[in-house]
Design a protein that fits this description.
Elements (H helix, E strand, L loop, with lengths): L3 E2 L2 H23 L4 E7 L3 H16 L3 E7 L5 H13 L5 E4 L9 H5 L13 H8 L8 H12 L8 E5 L6 H10 L3 E5 L6 H5 L4 E4 L17 E4 L3 E3 L2 E3 L4 H4 L5 E2 L6 H16 L8
Length: 285
């Protein structure tokens, strides 16, 4: 028996329909399309591909995305100055800082130069704190996409044991808080977790975001679990998830495919964040 596939494209299509209507309303009020500035340093292939997807999707549905490219060797002071200028620019409603950033630059330091009210991904310390207090301004789009897929699938986290494998500030940690807010019992695992398999086999909801293709094998998934695979690593020209999909789908009750699962919903959630910061829809849908 194969798991139910939690396909992202139909969910994303419904979100984009809503976003397009709100973008049209805001365009009339603002006198311009709701606008996102994308700060991209260097040409990391995954970041560049994501930027292209954002540019295409936003243009299709009536939002504007503006690329702000920088060379890998940009001076930190120059980058910070540009981010601060975007924060003051009234024609820009939201700013996204693409990762990964070349060393010694860090996302934590770059976003400190951005007003929290223009932080499209909710990674500014103020926005991260609001999320943990249960009163978010914006929610990071990738974990928000995972939660939206659970909602669409009719999976209520309340009372379930959720294991989140990964503790990044952009996926693992905010996802844990979102699950807690839905009354799940949450365990966050990571690279130093002992006997990870023994933990994942107990998970009723298993969310994996570690950036290691196929790290979670089929025998590490509990029968009947709901599996959210946040992995997006290119392997031999194709995207691969963090879960070994073929064996896992014969154990789980439901699973997100890679590609086609969380990815399409992520960009739609980003658009909803931009609209929220522009004064429209509530953040994260």
């Amino acid at each position: 028996m194969s798991a139910r596939l939690l396909e992202g494209r139909p969910v994303a299509a419904r979100l984009w329909e809503r976003a397009a209507a709100e973008a049209a309303r805001l365009r009339d009020r603002l006198g311009q399309p709701p606008t996102l500035a994308i700060v991209q340093v260097g040409q990391d292939p995954s970041a560049a591909a994501y930027t292209r997807q954002i540019l295409r999707s936003f243009a299709r549905y009536g939002l504007e995305a503006r690329l702000e490219p920088f060379p890998s060797e940009v001076a930190a002071s120059d980058l910070y100055a540009r981010v601060e200028a975007l924060g003051r620019d009234s024609s820009v409603q939201a700013v996204l800082v693409q990762t990964p950033l070349p060393a010694p630059l860090t996302l934590a330091e770059v976003v400190r130069h951005l007003p929290p009210e223009k932080d499209a991904e909710g990674v500014h310390p103020t926005n991260a704190g609001l999320l943990w207090q249960g009163t978010p301004r914006v929610v990071p789009s990738t974990p928000a996409a995972g939660m939206e897929l659970l909602r669409e699938a009719g999976v209520a986290p309340q009372g379930r044991l959720a294991v989140v494998v990964g503790r990044s500030n952009t996926v693992g940690k905010p996802l844990a808080q979102l699950l807690l807010a839905q009354h799940a019992t949450v365990v966050v695992a990571h690279s130093r977790t002992r006997d990870l398999a023994a933990l994942t086999r107990q998970a009723e909801i298993l969310a994996v975001a570690i950036g290691r293709p196929g790290a979670i094998k089929g025998d590490m998934v509990a029968p009947g679990a709901v599996v959210l695979d946040f992995g997006t690593t290119e392997v031999e020209g194709r995207l691969a998830g963090d879960v070994d999909f073929e064996p896992a789908q014969h154990v789980a009750a439901a699973i997100t495919p890679v590609p086609g699962g969380i990815g399409p919903v992520t960009i739609a959630m980003l658009a909803l964040n931009v609209l929220a910061l522009a004064g429209g829809l509530e953040a994260g849908g």
